[in-house]
Design brief:
Arc Repressor Mutant, subunit A, 3-stranded mixed beta sheet, alpha+beta, single chain, two-stranded antiparallel sheet, 229 residues
Length: 229
C-alpha cells in the first residue's frame, strides 16, 4: 500500500534530511551528515528510504552521488547548480556579475589561473547558456535588458564575455546559496553582488577598471579605515 508523504516523513530525522535536500539540492552523503550533525549510517538509511519512495533521487556527479528532491529543481537549474558548485565556474560567474564583462585574459590574471583552464570553463558556461561572447561596438555593449549600455574598453576587435541573464543567475544563487557558496572568495564576491542588487542596475554601466575604483570608494565609505586616504 502506498504511504502518504506525511507518513514517510513521520520521523523527525528523515523530515530534517528531506527538508535540507529540498532547500539545498546537490549535496552528497558525507556533506549532508556533516551539515545536519547526523551519523553517516543514519543519513544513508534515510536517503535509501526517501529514494525508494521516490521523494528524492540520486545523481552521479564525478565521484559523488548527489541528492535532489523530486519536482523541486528543474533539469536546467540542476545543470546550472552542478556547474556553479565547481570553484572556477562559480568564481567566473560571480566576477562577471560584478564587472558585467571581461576578457579571458583578465579573468585568468585576476584569479591566477592558467588561460587554458579559464578557456575550458568559459566554454562550459557558454554551453549551458549562462554566458555569451560578444563584440563591443564603438567601445560599448548594448543590451535589451538592464544594464542597457555598458562601456567596454578593449583592444582592437577583442571579444568579451558577459552573463546572458544576470537576474536569473542571481535568483539561482540566492535560492541555493547554501549548497553553492562555501568558500571565502565566493562569499566576499557575493557581498558585493548583494550590494549591487539593492542599489539596482543603472541604465549605463561604466568600464570595469572605473567600476573597481567606485567599488573601492564605496567600501571605504561603509568601512572607514584610519589609514585610508
Amino acid at each position: 500500500m502506498y504511504e502518504g508523504i506525511d507518513n514517510i516523513l513521520l520521523l523527525s530525522t528523515r523530515r530534517a534530511i528531506y527538508q535540507f535536500i529540498s532547500k539545498s539540492p546537490g549535496f552528497h552523503l558525507r556533506e549532508i551528515s556533516r551539515r545536519l550533525h547526523i551519523p553517516l549510517t543514519t543519513v544513508k538509511y534515510h536517503l535509501h528510504v526517501l529514494t525508494k519512495r521516490e521523494l528524492i533521487k540520486e545523481k552521479k556527479e564525478g565521484r559523488y552521488l548527489r541528492y535532489y528532491a523530486i519536482n523541486t529543481v528543474g533539469s536546467h537549474d540542476k545543470k546550472l547548480i552542478s556547474l556553479l558548485r565547481l570553484d572556477i565556474p562559480r568564481i567566473i560567474i560571480l566576477y562577471l556579475l560584478i564587472h558585467y564583462w571581461s576578457t579571458q585574459v583578465d579573468i585568468s590574471n585576476s584569479f591566477h589561473k592558467h588561460p587554458t583552464t579559464i578557456e575550458y570553463y568559459l566554454k562550459k558556461l557558454m554551453d549551458v547558456g549562462l554566458i555569451e561572447q560578444v563584440k563591443p561596438v564603438d567601445g560599448k555593449i548594448y543590451r535589451d535588458e538592464n544594464p542597457r549600455i555598458i562601456e567596454c574598453e578593449t583592444v582592437g576587435r577583442e571579444k568579451v564575455y558577459i552573463i546572458k541573464n544576470p537576474q536569473q543567475i542571481y535568483d539561482i544563487i540566492i535560492t541555493y546559496k547554501q549548497s553553492i557558496i562555501d568558500d571565502t572568495i565566493s562569499k566576499d564576491l557575493f557581498v558585493w553582488i548583494s550590494f549591487l542588487q539593492t542599489t539596482g542596475h543603472p541604465k549605463k554601466v561604466i568600464a570595469p577598471k572605473k567600476w573597481e575604483k567606485s567599488l573601492d570608494d564605496v567600501f571605504w565609505e561603509v568601512f572607514p579605515h584610519p589609514y585610508h586616504v
